[in-house]
Structure formats: structure tokens, C-alpha cells
Amino acid sequence: MGRADKHIHQNDLFLYDSLLVKRLADGVHFWPDFVGFEIPDEFVVGYALDFNEHFRDLQHICVISKEGYERYKRK
């Protein structure tokens, strides 16, 4: 075990991060230590987030439209 591993185990300190955190009406029970972006409570796609294996190759994150949902939903 390396020096860094020993240091982590001795202190038992864990910090959590999240690229996206949704704003929920009922509140959040857990909040990460580091947040990239707060987003609305909607289904998002892009930047490796997909919908039925579509949209994951987008270089940005966006909310899927109703038309997009209907077009790419499983039949």
C-alpha cells in the first residue's frame, strides 16, 4: 500500500463530487461536496448520457424534447 493509500485509510475522509445535480421540489437528501452544474428536474442527454443508446455522442448536455423522446423510444 502506497503512502497516499495509508493517508486515506488513516483519516477516513471521503469527499463526493457530481457533474450534475438535479434541483428537486421535495429537496435533496444528499448533496455532494463538489458540484459541476445544477440542472432542472428533467431527463438530460448528451456527453455520455444516452436515451435508448442515442445522443450519448453529443458534446453537450441538453434536455430531450418530447419529439425526440417519441422518435427514439423503444417500440
UniProtKB/TrEMBL annotation:
Species in which this protein is naturally found: Fasciola gigantica (Giant liver fluke)
Pathway where it operates: Purine metabolism; IMP biosynthesis via salvage pathway; IMP from hypoxanthine: step 1/1
Major place of residence: cytoplasm
UniProt-listed GO biological process terms: GMP salvage; guanine salvage; hypoxanthine metabolic process; IMP salvage
Protein name: Hypoxanthine-guanine phosphoribosyltransferase
Compartments reported by the entry: Cytoplasm
Keyword Transferase set for record: yes
Reaction equations catalysed: GMP + diphosphate = guanine + 5-phospho-alpha-D-ribose 1-diphosphate; IMP + diphosphate = hypoxanthine + 5-phospho-alpha-D-ribose 1-diphosphate
InterPro entries: HGPRT (IPR050408), PRTase-like (IPR029057)
The entry's keywords: Cytoplasm, Glycosyltransferase, Transferase
Cofactor(s) needed by this chain: Mg(2+)
EC number: 2.4.2.8
One GO molecular-function entry: magnesium ion binding
GO CC terms: cytosol
